[in-house]
Design goal:
The complex is a heterodimer. Chain A is globular. Chain A is of the alpha/beta class. Chain A has two domains: 33-122, no CATH class; 147-450, TIM Barrel (Alpha-Beta Barrel). In chain A, 53% of the residues lie in helices and 7% in strands. A nine-stranded parallel beta sheet of chain A has the order 7-6-5-4-3-2-10-9-8. Chain A has a two-stranded antiparallel sheet with strand order 1-11. Chain A contains 20 helices and eleven strands. In chain A, strand 3, helix 8 (208-225) and strand 4 (230-234) form a beta-alpha-beta unit. Chain B is of the alpha/beta class. Chain B has two domains: 2-71, D-lysine 5,6-aminomutase beta subunit KamE, N-terminal domain (Defensin A-like), CATH 3.30.30.60; 87-240, Cobalamin-binding domain (Rossmann fold), CATH 3.40.50. Chain B has a five-stranded parallel beta sheet with strand order 7-6-8-9-10, with helices on both faces. In chain B, strands 2-4-3 form a three-stranded antiparallel beta sheet, with helices on one face. Classes of the chains: A alpha/beta, B alpha/beta. The A-B interface holds A 158, 165, 168-169, 172-173, 184-185, 187-188, 201-202, 265-267, 300-303, 341, 343, 373-375, 377-378, 410-413, 415-417, 420-421 and B 18-20, 51, 53-57, 59, 111-113, 115-116, 119, 125, 128, 145, 147, 171-174, 176, 204-205, 222-223.
Chain lengths: 518, 241
């Protein structure tokens, strides 16, 4: 792709190099550590599921029961219990849920445990391969109906069955991607709730059963509409790896998954987040699930003009962490947002510039572009016009995943017609300017070119400062999003542990092997 | 004075409506939409647009006229702040009346994860060219961020001897904010702090009326800036002295 912005390739390469150096020491830490969430995700992928009568998930029960033995990895003990009892995972889960104790079993020969481990990992491999094949086949079958960018909407009723109705309606109206927003504060739960749920605030619990229900509903509407409708959930918070595991099993297509969002915006401990994001990205990569990173959040909390470089810096860091987890560029839905104050003169030109910049710097990434939210006021009519401008910027710069702005943003969770109006707005704008991107070039040395060059320069300077400080210290000093997060602060630190000399995790070994991760 | 909505002539009572009915789009559906609007008490409804959202839902745009009028002189409402002071005026007011900085502790409480509201009011930069409370010379502003339990907010407010507590509530689905705000007031009362500090709530769906009903000193809704909040805090505390 020819650069419309005259961005320096050398500068882009230098920024990438900085990101590589910034993430290297963190990756070393990640390699030496695991977390309770990684272990629980591993157990789930080996077959652990269900809960105790009072709702404690079996993976959490195992973490609690096995205590310090977690340093060797929990897989060994779960597999050992399967061998000792000759039960299926389902039978064992039921028994553990009812209080069956597996902690006093002596370990059988390592050879048997490893063999059983291979068997269980193979079962996961078959399941995930089947899901990947199914998705590929459907995308191929319905390839003529693919829009660019893909139109992404959110449902958030709190009740999975109500979500299904709204999601199916949105798909009929033209949505390509449906995200079921999570209930407020699920990110801070250190367990994943179980079963179908009908009560949530501002969203619906992410549970494996809810994933299954929505997947089936979207598959049904996909067949009718002759378009593959992608399903999104939130692979973030304290259960990031477990959500990834559940998503891989239930064929989600997109996961919100950022390497630093939880630290900065949810006050989750940094060590916990770094280890968890890596494992979850390995799972997402294996399952060919597109991740969406959360750079839009830098702009909802800070000024979109002044802080544009923090978005690009975060994209570089997210990209590098994803590469290190073995994820290809084609799955990296790096995020950015249209969040400038509408009163700024030529603000649209700056937005256009930054969107084009993201496109040129990450040419293979399925970029995720977020709509105006911060300056939406309740004037639904002006908001609708702002969304039209956002739609224009997205199409003009070849974005990949387009989260539709709602005219009722800042008022309430969308009414069913709000999504329809948003889709109609986007389809009108994007169709009427379908080839705009290839028709239009930007003036040399003009506002648009200069803006992108300036943001790239600021990003390079910022990244080299972060590199000097080291990422852990940079976060501690508040260099990102003006939020200071102490290394030993935040939620979830107690769940991080150093891998013991005999640490064993057959799922991790398998993922690394199949992804050739760093 | 009796008033009615103004479309293009005084007292024509003309209004614009849009809504969705859970039925398949067809002539009968449009007629149902029209009848529904008439049932609401409108006259002369015309459904100007309908479109299927899916097999089971239809969206309508309608225009209708109303005979209902309202005596404007009987409407009772008090804004938390009628005229605002500028940042400098507020700082000067606080110096004169208190001779010390006033301490303000803010948070988005309960399960609500949105920092956008509290940040708009408190952060140095503020919002839409209105500086935030952190910028005020005579305010000591502590922003605790989002998802702060009420208990933690109160404990912190006690520790720093807060003069005012600011609570932001963005998520209002299923009235979760009402439960949370009620709990905060109950806790303040149980801790015998209610008389010692102002309790103020803000958010896009918050009104002064609602706030006062729930036991707060004031409520600030959409369109409020730090100036409004700071003016209220300074004047109210001076009044209470």
């Amino acid at each position: 792709m020819k650069s419309k912005l005259g961005l320096s390739k050398t500068k882009i390469a230098a920024a990438r190099k900085s990101a590589e150096k910034i993430t290297a020491p963190v990756q070393k830490f990640i390699g030496d550590h695991s977390t309770v969430a990684v272990e629980r995700a591993t157990l789930r992928l080996l077959g652990a599921d269900m809960t105790s009568p009072d709702g404690v998930p079996v993976p959490n029960m195992l973490v609690d029961a096995l205590k310090d033995r977690i340093q060797s990895g929990l897989s060994r003990y779960y597999i050992n219990a399967l061998l000792k009892t000759a039960k299926t995972p389902q039978e064992l889960n039921e028994a553990i849920g009812k209080g069956f104790d597996i902690t006093s079993f002596g370990l059988v020969d390592a050879h048997h445990i490893e063999q059983k481990g291979r068997e269980l990992v193979d079962a996961f491999d078959r399941l995930v391969s089947k899901n990947v094949q199914h998705r590929r086949a459907k995308l191929e079958e319905f390839s003529s109906a693919v829009k660019s960018p893909l139109l992404y909407v959110i449902v958030a009723t709190g009740n999975i069955y109500e979500d299904v109705k709204q999601a199916q309606a949105a798909a009929v109206e033209g949505a390509d991607i449906v995200a079921v927003i999570r209930t407020t504060a699920q990110s801070l739960l250190d367990y994943v709730p179980y079963g179908a749920t009908t009560e949530g605030f501002g969203g619906t619990y992410a549970t494996q059963e809810n994933f299954r229900i929505m997947r089936a509903a979207l598959d049904e509407v996909s067949q009718k509409q002759k378009r593959y409708i992608r399903l999104v959930n939130y692979c973030s918070g304290l259960c990031m790896p477990e959500i990834a595991a559940m998503g891989a099993m239930e064929r989600l297509d997109v996961m919100l998954n950022d390497s630093m969002y939880g630290i900065l915006f949810r006050d989750i401990n940094m060590y916990r987040t770094f280890v968890d994001q890596n494992f979850s990205r390995m799972i997402n990569a294996r399952a060919e699930i597109i991740i969406n990173t959360g750079e839009d959040n830098y702009l909802t909390t800070s000024d979109a003009v002044e802080k544009a470089h923090t978005v690009l810096a975060s994209q570089f860091i997210n990209e590098r962490f994803a590469f290190r987890a073995g994820m290809p560029s084609g799955l990296m839905g790096l995020g950015h947002a249209f969040e400038m104050d509408p009163e700024i003169k030529n603000g649209f030109l700056l937005e256009l510039s930054q969107a084009q910049m993201a496109r040129e710097i990450f040419p293979d990434a399925p970029l995720k572009y977020m709509p105006p939210t911060k300056f939406m006021t309740g004037n639904v009519f002006k908001g609708y016009a702002m969304n039209a401008m956002f739609n224009f910027a997205s199409k003009a710069t070849g974005q990949s995943i387009h989260l539709l702005g709602m005219l009722t943003e800042a008022i309430h969770t969308p009414h069913i017609a709000d999504r329809f109006l948003a889709i109609q707005n986007a389809m009108y704008v994007m169709n009427s300017m379908a080839d705009f991107q290839s028709e239009v070039e930007f003036k040399k040395g003009g506002i648009i070119q200069k803006r992108a060059q300036q943001v790239l320069d600021e990003t390079a300077a910022f990244l080299s400062e972060v590199q000097k400080a080291g990422l852990f210290d940079a976060i501690e000093r508040g260099m990102f999003a003006d939020v200071k997060r102490p290394k030993d602060g935040g939620k979830g630190l107690a769940g991080v542990f150093e891998k013991g000399p005999d640490y064993w995790n057959p799922v991790e070994d398998y993922l690394k092997k199949s992804l050739k991760a760093a | 004075m009796n008033i009615k909505p103004y479309g293009d002539t005084l007292n024509d009572g003309a209004m614009q409506l849009s809504f969705t009915l859970p039925v398949k789009a067809c002539g009968r559906a449009a007629e149902a939409a029209r009848l529904y609007v008439l049932k609401l008490g409108f006259k002369d409804c015309s459904v100007v647009y309908q479109e299927a959202l899916s097999d089971d839902f239809t969206f309508f745009v309608a225009y209708a006229k109303s005979d209902v009028s309202l005596d404007y002189s009987k409407v009772e409402y008090a804004e938390a702040v009628s005229d605002t002071m500028t940042m400098n005026e507020t700082d000067e007011f606080i110096s004169r009346h208190f001779g010390r900085k006033l301490v303000v502790v803010g948070a988005c409480t309960g399960s609500d994860a949105h920092t956008v509201g509290i940040d708009a009011i408190m952060n140095m930069k503020g919002y839409n060219h209105h500086f935030g409370l952190e910028r005020y010379q005579m305010l000591e502003a502590h922003n605790l961020g989002a998802q702060v339990p009420n208990e933690k907010l109160i404990e912190y407010a006690r520790k720093v001897k807060a003069d005012a507590i600011l609570v932001s509530q963005v998520v209002t689905q299923k009235d979760v904010h009402i439960h949370n705000l009620t709990q905060l007031i109950e806790l303040l009362e149980a801790e015998k702090l209610r008389g010692k500090m102002l309790a103020i709530v803000g958010g896009p769906r918050i009104s002064n009326k609602l706030a006062v009903e729930l036991g707060f000193n004031a409520g600030f809704g959409a369109g409020s800036y730090a100036d409004h909040v700071a003016t209220f805090i300074a004047r109210k505390l001076a009044e209470k002295k």
